[in-house]
Amino acid sequence: MQANMQKISWLVAGTGLGILLTAGATALAEKQALSPLPINELRAFTDVYARIKQDYVEPVDDKKLINEAINGMLTGLDPHSAYLDPEAFKDLRVNTSGEFGGLGLEVNLEDGLVRVISPIEDTPAFMAGIKAGDYIMKIDEAPVRGLSLSDAVAKMRGKPNTPVVLTVLRKGETKPLVFTLKRAVIKVQSVKSRMLEAGYGYVRLAQFQDRSTEDVARALEGLYKENKGSLKGVILDLRNDPGGVLTGAIGVSSLFLPDNVLVVSTTGRAPGSSEKFNSSSEFFPRDGKPLPKDIKTVPLVVLVNAGSASASEIVAGALQDHKRAVVVGTQTFGKGSVQTIINVGKDSAIKLTTARYFTPNGRSIQAKGIVPDIEVEEATLNGVTGDAFRVREADLDHHLSNPQGGDETKTAPAKQGQPEAKLAPQPAAPAKAKPEALDKDGKPVKDEEPLRPGEISLKKDYQLQQALNVLKVQQIVSRTTPVSEGGVAVATTTK
């Protein structure tokens, strides 16, 4: 198991990431026989190269031409393969540590613009109100169109406390939005927790990092301590979590699953790309400190949405397949592919898609995602759900197909003639809404203090309300139904 951990310690399952550092392309080539080189196609490449060098309106550096050719070769394969120049390679390694400089955005390149995959919580971009799905069209006064992704990211980075202006296109807005932000050293707090009600704990995981499993374990420990050593149930919130290191996904799953059950498997063509990863306490070393005694059986709900990707989908799929948790929310993003980072040269690398992920029951995540046990929309917007404005894996150009066939999960188009109203949705009230809370003088209790962007409020979060209701049903059923090892009895539900 220790060898497995070392092998995957750099494997990243994020929407914009995906890492498995290897010794280099040479080692991979030795394992797999290469087909003969396509002489005619290579001749065409050299002819084009020579024509650009001779006739282009301005002199072009050889390094630039080669780098752009490599990048084009990779980006044409699928949305997650890419060339990492020295700066991009450095950024990628720093990002997984959970501390780096910049604005706090997970981004990719789409249609010549930088698309926001997710703003990272508690960062300048997050606090300013930049949202997943926004398109950055200008950085300061420089248009983004025509820039490579690494060049665009470099423009957003800089010394802490220096300003940068982002001009953003957002669906539903009639004109571009302008945000003035100050760069900062980004220290991502990936785990937050709180008690929702007496006995019911809540853990929010914003991104899977190297230390996330230990942070989740510590958060659970704190919730148990706050509730005098026991909990009636736990909600694990993975909404808008773009993913992260694979060891984090296996570790978080292992917190709730018995040892040595399958969490995720990978299947690919290259030797070593087909693997099975089981749950184990080795993924969250506690120095002999035990986990809360009933953490393997406490009723559990996992909250997901279309922004939950990759590592988030691995956790949701594993807990769902083992019937350890009820998955609540909306269908996830559908990034079910593995990227391997292969060193090329001294400081650069390529990020290459080498395998697909499968849940313990053998379901492919790719372009389909995880379907929740209980579907609860985030909100409605004049008949269009909040997820209708998101982009899923199946919407991306050149995405990998699902090897098991069937319908891919694309973002549902807005209804014909439906106006793109501004994003200020109000969730539908439950069928039996609770009466308004009154204070001792019979006056309505004031709402919570204004929330920062992205903060969670039980009063205002309809999905969270319904997840808590599901958890209470689980807790009631678990008191009357024998609990099998590694699983908790749940109520049978239908959509």
Automatic annotation (TrEMBL):
Transmembrane segments: none annotated. It comes from the Bacteria. InterPro entries: ClpP/crotonase-like_dom_sf (IPR029045), CtpA/B_N (IPR055210), PDZ (IPR001478), PDZ_sf (IPR036034), Peptidase_S41A (IPR004447), Tail-specific_protease (IPR005151). Residues 433-458 have a biased composition (Basic and acidic residues). This is Peptidase S41. Residues 89-171 form the PDZ domain. Pfam families: CtpB_N-like (PF22694), PDZ_2 (PF13180), Peptidase_S41 (PF03572). Residues 418-432 have a biased composition (Low complexity). Belongs to the peptidase S41A family. Residues 398-458 are annotated as: Disordered. Keywords: Hydrolase, Protease, Serine protease.
